[in-house]
Amino acid sequence: MMNYDKVILGEDVVFSTDCKETQINNNVIVCGSSGCGKTMSLIEPKLLCTNNSSIVLTLSKRRLVNTYTKLFEQRKYQVWDLNFVSPEKSQMGYDPLLYVKSWTDVTYLAEAIVMADVRKKDSKADPYWDSTSIGLLSALISHVLMTKKDGSMADVIDLFRELKILKSSDLVETTLDANFEKIRSADPKHFAVACWDSFKQTPIKTAGCIYSSLGTMLDKIFTPQLCTMMREAEKIDFKKLSSEKTILFVSTSAVNPSLNTFVNIFYSQMFKELFEIGEENENTQLELPVQVVCDDFACGAKILNFAEYISIFREKGISVTMMLQSESQLKSIYGEEDAKTIINNSDTYVYMGGNDLDTAKSVSSRLDRPLEEILYMPIGQEFIFRRGQKPITAQRYNILEDEEYQKVMRALNEAKER
Description:
Blueprint (H helix, E strand, L loop, with lengths): L5 E5 L2 E4 L2 H4 L5 E4 L6 H12 L4 E6 L3 H12 L3 E6 L8 E2 L9 H12 L12 H21 L5 H10 L2 E2 L6 E2 L2 H10 L4 H10 L3 H18 L2 H9 L1 E2 L2 H4 L4 E6 L5 H24 L9 E5 L11 H4 L3 H4 L1 E7 L2 H18 L3 E4 L5 H11 L3 H5 L5 E6 L5 E4 L7 H15 L1
Parallel strand pairs: 3-12, 3-13, 4-10, 4-11, 5-10, 6-9, 11-12
Antiparallel strand pairs: 1-2, 7-8, 13-14, 14-15
């Protein structure tokens, strides 16, 4: 019989994560302005309460890695450290190409990269430009998969660097034409050939624009340090993550949006992989629940298909806790409709205060209280909404009085003194 972790949402507000018992999903939205205590009153209590499930934690504060590594080692967890801020120091590596198993996966990965720029959501540009960029990148990915035994995304970047458009005629001629002709000679209907031919059929000026646009995106996302990590470090095994107790720390930067883009490509692929792993199991669920905690969830870039994924997390044993500064922040990244879908598929919502008027109006409507009460709520107070229950007014959890937390801090201080 599986044991389930508990979740602490506030002082004296504790629930089970057993969906059969609660009859609701474990997706949580936490909304509160910067500095309101989301980390210490919600993220750290979740770490202290995690004993029976795997957890993936995105963070911009390395303090959490240093503080909680020993605790999870004592709990017999695998501790994985994926450091996108300093890839050269990362214990684990992530290579998007490792999880590509079909030509559909190729297109999915190419789309996740090309569409990672959040500005494209509101762009009035013809979608033709994005679709042709996706096609070109799909051709390059397919080329590497076919020609290299253990090809990595770093090899795809290298191949793109070799690509040059020759302006010898009105037709598109490139430095990689001979490479794709070799593939064509082996298999005229190969996916790589079809994608390449689509790119080659564009007018030469258009091809140049596509090449330039894709190059800008690849330069922004795939730094030389990340490429080295993709080649050299031990790679994340999602199968192991979902079957053996594991904590995966994913470090990103609060001031470098390009890293957020790469992290969100990682999340897009992770959710897809976990769903497919669950589908392959006899009961169509993951062997262990996987809790995903996203600090600064709506910063940087959009997770491809997230609004669709969140509606099916529960049936696979996946849950996500999203830290937001405001609902407006979520809408700015995902758009009005997808933001509604994400909120509607989160059966728990914790509001910790803030200055965003639209968010305050939403909470006011939920509580049926005057807007003034929400805008001027006392520091440390929070409102907790759980589907099927009346709203709860509580004080945020005081982790400093938690005995387990005190033990962790004593052990940490003793280690520093040695």
